[in-house]
Each structure stands twice: as C-alpha cells, then as structure tokens.
C-alpha cells in the first residue's frame, strides 16, 4: 500500500467509516486505493456507482454503450431528466464528479466483447456485473474465472432479484463455484422477455445493486463474509430473502475438473453461451 | 404422495403461481416431476428437460439443494419434499 494519508476534508467526509474499527483510516485508504469496473450504468449500476463513489472507492470504471432514455428514469437513478439522450457513462460520470472529487471515473462507451474484455477488466480489483443481457453475463463470468478476478453478480426480473459473489480464488482445493456451476448455459435467445415487455419494479434494482455495492466494499476492505457459495434470491412482493447454497460443479464447462472453455474466444456468446462449434 | 413445487421468475409466470402442492401416485423422481410439469403447462413445454436431462438453463432444488449434486433427474423424492425450479435472469431491457 502506498503512503496515502487522509487529509482533513477526507477525515471529515469519511468520518463515519473511519470511526469504525472494521474500517478505520487503513480501511478507508484501501477503499481510496481500490478500483471497481461496473459493467452497466442502468438499474443495478446506478445505486452501485452511487454508493461506491460515496464510499470513496478511488477508481470506478463504467462500461455502457447506451444513451439515457426517459423510461430508464423510473429506476436508473444515477441519471436525471436532463440527461435523456446523453451517453449513460457520461451522465454517471457527472453524478460521481458532483458527489465525490476523490473518485476517478473511467468511462467506456462500448459494449463488452470477447475481444475487449481482457483490456477492460485487467486494471481493476473487482468487477460488478450490472449488465442487462446474458451474453455479457456469461462473458464476464468466464473471463473472471479464467483470470481469477472477483465478480459481483446481480440480476433482476419484475419483482425478483438474484445476487451472489464469485471470488474466483482458486487454489485447487475447496475452490468456489462460478455462475456456470448454477446455470451452465444461457436461455435461448427470445425465450426470456425483456423488461420493456414484462416491466420491472423500479426500486427492485436499487435493493440488488446496493447489496452488490456492499459486497464490493467488503471485498476491498477485506472484511466480513462474502456472499459466496450462496445465491441470494430476493422477492420484493413477499419481502423475502432466501439463500440457495451453491457448490462448485465438477462438470462446469469453465471451472470444472475438465473445463471445455479455456478462452473466452471458445464461446459463442450471442447464442446460448455454449462452447463454439468451430 | 405430495410434493411442494415452487417456481421463480419466468417459470412463475408460465405456471401462474409461486407455489402449489401436487399429488403424485407412488414413488417419483425429479425428472418425472419435471416431465409432468412440461406436459401440464404450455409455457414450460421443452423448457425443463432435454433428452431426459435437466436443461442447462435452469436450476432445480430438492429441499433447497441443487439436484446436480444428487442424482440429477434420477433424484428420488419423498412425501413432503420441496422442489424449486428457477432460471437465470439477466436484469434489464435487453434480456433476450
């Protein structure tokens, strides 16, 4: 760790962190030196970016190729009415700049692909998957498994959320599971209706994205127990949380005993994310 | 015997309810329960099984545990067991 001292303004800004033994000035320095790549600046990414920035995570990368639409504003709270039509990465970066000058934002107005995922993820401590499609989710999972990069997973559907953490720390003994251990393949294109068709409760991604931000902050602090090996299922209608134990699958195509996927270029991500036939 | 069935996300919509209890005559396996559901609900047809195996696009739990780590579709059920069926969800307006 470099010699990073908290100045008087920072001691004030982060005083409610610093006063806790679990964080303290050392923990706050960890956050300020930490880096997170947030993939998606939508419903999940909005609260995640806001809380990570407020917490003083020093470098936040944001990946998104969309522009803000008015129908986003019911849940994508990092954007405002005046941002309609602007790139989401720019709108989110402006929000962070106004909130906390300690945070450097790196904007990437593009879609994650097998070709660019390596360069985009390489310089970050942890990845937060706030994406809106299965191609990106499986690509991120596979890349993070192969590079042993920690990954926070959150996803939503109407009134339900799924959230978990994959540390991807593999030593060959008691290794953790990955997303493909739960769902080896993505649904067939066209079989899962999107939220423009089914709707989504606006506050739902707020809850899930905040849990993801919590996990990332804990990871950077090196404190607490990660939501690993547990898929947290949230039902907003019942206001219930249910944990499903997740174990590594020996037959997992990317982290199993004899994995088929050795590179993200092996996989056709625009289909069901199976290994490519060619 | 009675099996408690629980559905999540898209499967919940296909079935039209979160959970219900269904009577099965005699011994039954997870695969047989899934095949029954596919035949009873139009929206589940072809969504749960592929050549008798549980499709890679869903997770099936027996009493909260993934049957992948049991006997898969051959996992035997007992009276009162809870079978949960849930898909991956993407999270946005490009959900495919």
Automatic annotation (TrEMBL), chain A:
CDD domains named among the record's database cross-references: ThiF_MoeB_HesA_family
Any one GO molecular function term: thiosulfate-cyanide sulfurtransferase activity
Keyword Aminoacyl-tRNA synthetase: no
A Pfam cross-reference name: ThiF
Keyword Metal-binding: no
UniProt domain THIF-type NAD/FAD binding fold: residue ranges: 14-254
Gene3D superfamilies, sorted: NAD(P)-binding Rossmann-like Domain
Stored InterPro entries: ThiF/MoeB/HesA, ThiF_NAD_FAD-bd, Ubiquitin-activating_enz
Protein name: Adenylyltransferase and sulfurtransferase
Species this chain originates from: Natronobacterium haloterrestre (Halobiforma haloterrestris)
UniProtKB/TrEMBL annotation, chain B:
Record SUPFAM superfamilies: MoaD/ThiS (SSF54285)
Entry-linked InterPro entries: Beta-grasp_dom_sf (IPR012675), MoaD_arc-typ (IPR010038), Mopterin_synth/thiamin_S_b (IPR016155), SAMP1_3 (IPR054834), Sulfur_Carrier/Prot_Modifier (IPR052045), ThiS/MoaD-like (IPR003749)
Highest taxon of source: Archaea
CDD domains tied to this protein: Ubl_SAMP1_like (cd17505)
Pfam family, one: ThiS
NCBIfam families found in the cross-reference section: moaD_arch (TIGR01687), SAMP1 (NF041918)
Protein name: Molybdopterin synthase sulfur carrier subunit
Organism of origin: Natronobacterium haloterrestre
């Amino acid at each position: 760790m470099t010699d990073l001292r908290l100045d008087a303004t920072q001691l004030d800004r982060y005083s409610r962190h610093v006063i806790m033994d679990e964080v303290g000035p050392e923990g706050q320095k960890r956050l300020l030196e930490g880096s997170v790549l947030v993939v998606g600046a939508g419903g999940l990414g909005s609260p995640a970016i806001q809380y990570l920035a407020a917490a003083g995570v020093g470098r936040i990368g944001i990946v998104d190729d969309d522009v803000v639409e008015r129908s986003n504003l019911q849940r994508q709270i990092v954007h405002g009415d005046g941002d309609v039509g602007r790139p989401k990465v720019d709108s989110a970066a402006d929000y962070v700049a106004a909130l906390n000058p300690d945070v450097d934002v790196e904007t990437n107005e593009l879609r994650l692909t097998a070709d660019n995922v390596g360069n985009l993820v390489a310089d970050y401590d942890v990845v937060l998957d706030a994406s809106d499609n299965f191609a990106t989710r499986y690509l991120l999972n596979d890349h993070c498994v192969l590079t042993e990069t920690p990954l926070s997973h959150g996803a939503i559907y109407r009134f339900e959320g799924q959230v978990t953490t994959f540390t991807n720390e593999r030593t060959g003994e008691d290794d953790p599971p990955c997303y493909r251990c739960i769902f080896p393949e993505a649904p067939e294109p066209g079989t899962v209706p999107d939220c423009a068709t089914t709707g989504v409760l606006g506050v739902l991604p707020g809850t899930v994205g905040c849990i993801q931000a919590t996990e990332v902050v804990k990871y950077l602090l090196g404190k607490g127990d990660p939501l690993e090996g547990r898929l947290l299922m949230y039902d907003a209608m019942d206001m219930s949380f249910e944990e499903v134990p997740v174990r590594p699958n020996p037959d997992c195509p990317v982290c199993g005993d004899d994995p088929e996927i050795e590179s993200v270029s092996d996989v056709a991500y625009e289909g069901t994310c199976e290994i490519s036939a060619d | 015997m009675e099996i408690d069935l629980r559905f999540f996300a898209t499967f919940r919509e296909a079935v039209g309810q979160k959970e219900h209890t269904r009577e099965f005559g005699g011994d039954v396996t997870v695969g047989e329960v899934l095949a029954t559901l596919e035949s009873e609900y139009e929206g589940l047809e072809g969504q749960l099984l592929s050549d008798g195996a549980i499709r890679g696009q869903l997770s099936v739990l027996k009493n909260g545990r993934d049957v992948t780590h049991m006997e898969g579709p051959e996992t035997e059920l007992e009276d009162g067991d809870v079978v949960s069926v849930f898909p991956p969800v993407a999270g946005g307006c490009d959900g495919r």
